Amino acid sequence: MAEVLLGDRAVGDGHACYVVGEIGINHNGDFDIARQLIDVAAAAGCDAVKFQKRTIDVVYSAEELAAPRENPFGTTNGDLKRGLEFGKEEYEEIDSHCREEGIAWMASCWDEGAVDFIERYSPPCYKIASASLTDDALLAYTRAKGRPIVLSTGMSTLAEIDHAVEVLGKEDLILLHTTSTYPAMYEELELAVIPELRKRYRVPVGYSGHETGVATSVAAVAMGACFVERHITLERSMWGSDQAASLGPSGLIRMIRDLRLVEIAMGTGEKRVFDSELPIIDKLRRVKGPVSL
Fold first, then answer.
1. What pLDDT was estimated at residue 291?
2. How far is CA 90 from the centre of its chain?
3. Residues 37 and 63: beta-carbon distance below 8 Å
4. How far is CA 31 from the centre of its chain?
5. Band (100; pLDDT cuts 50, 70, 90)
6. The pLDDT value given to residue 169
7. Is the separation of the CB atoms in 169 and 230 below 8 Å?
8. Cβ partners under 8 Å of residue 263, min gap 6
9. What is each CA distance from 4 to 26, 147, 162, 289, in whole angstroms?
10. Could you tell me the pTM of the whole model?
């Protein structure tokens, strides 16, 4: 299985799971909230945080933007989308603060202009959202930047994933298994797909979780996920569509603690007798067989 280098971190079999705190739009258009979330992710032990970048008038039609929608920024869907979108000033602050905290950052780019915008910051990779998996032009444009690609596969068939992988190529590619509902129901997580994706594509495979708890994200690591992404929030009761499917500070800390324990417990795959077991053999076994250490 090939490994992918994200900055100075290798992702793949034999390496510690790469953990991303997805800030997304949970900053609610407020850089101070974004800064606090970066601090939470760094303190919890995340390798990176992730944002979302859109060129509003390209991603959404005029009709969508004009649609009525009461929100903290106004009365239309356009007011909401523009209110949540960070610009150059905020991303300069994000880049600076992440450097101060020693944590990488990246973004899901929903259009070609957004890719060009983020490229100025030399991200370790580009994340392609599940919603963009069938956008061949965006896939090819993003790949042309020459950086590793992390592709989420929610709401996608195997045939659609096959085609996206054909467009992107397998070099420096990480696939993320995910279910694109917020929050996702446990009976629809289908974690058993993770080893199937590993076998089918022979590239590093991770997990992007939208469930409410942490156990299944930890279980994903035991099933071969080498990259885990979870939405994070300061408080799940905050306003916003993604908050309920996010982890608060304590949940994020618990998830990273537990997945690191699982990584240790997975071991080498070699069945052996440990030195610590030898006194137990002497104490409990009536008949001692041959022991090879």
1. 56
2. 22
3. no
4. 21
5. very high
6. 98
7. no
8. 16, 17, 221
9. 28, 10, 19, 45
10. 0.95
Nearest Cα neighbor of 190 from 154, 229, 165, 235 is 154
- Which two structure tokens, joined as six digits, stand for 214? 């942490």
For the chain, domain boundaries: 4-284
Burial of 216 (0-12, 13-18, 19+ CB in 10 A): middle
How would CATH label the architecture of 4-284? Alpha-Beta Barrel (3.20)
User: pLDDT tens digits, residue range 59-69?
Assistant: 999 999 999 99
Q: Is the pLDDT of residue 293 over 60?
A: no
For 67, the token pair is 């649609």
Is residue 74's pLDDT more than 90? yes
CA distance readout (Å), 38 to 76, 94, 175, 188, 207: 29, 8, 24, 30, 21
DSSP-derived secondary structure for the chain: ---EEETTEEESTTSPPEEEEEEETTTTT-HHHHHHHHHHHHHHT-SEEEEEE--HHHHS-HHHHHSEEEETTEEEHHHHHHHH---HHHHHHHHHHHHHHT-EEEEEE-SHHHHHHHHTT--S-EEE-GGGTT-HHHHHHHHTT-S-EEEE-TT--HHHHHHHHHHH-STTEEEEE---SSSPPGGG--TTHHHHHHHHH-S-EEEEE-SSSSHHHHHHHHTT--EEEEEB-S-TTSSSTTGGGSB-HHHHHHHHHHHHHHHHHH--S-----GGGHHHHHHH-SS------
Q: What is the pLDDT of residue 290?
A: 72
Judge whether 191 and 167 are in contact, CB under 8 Å: no
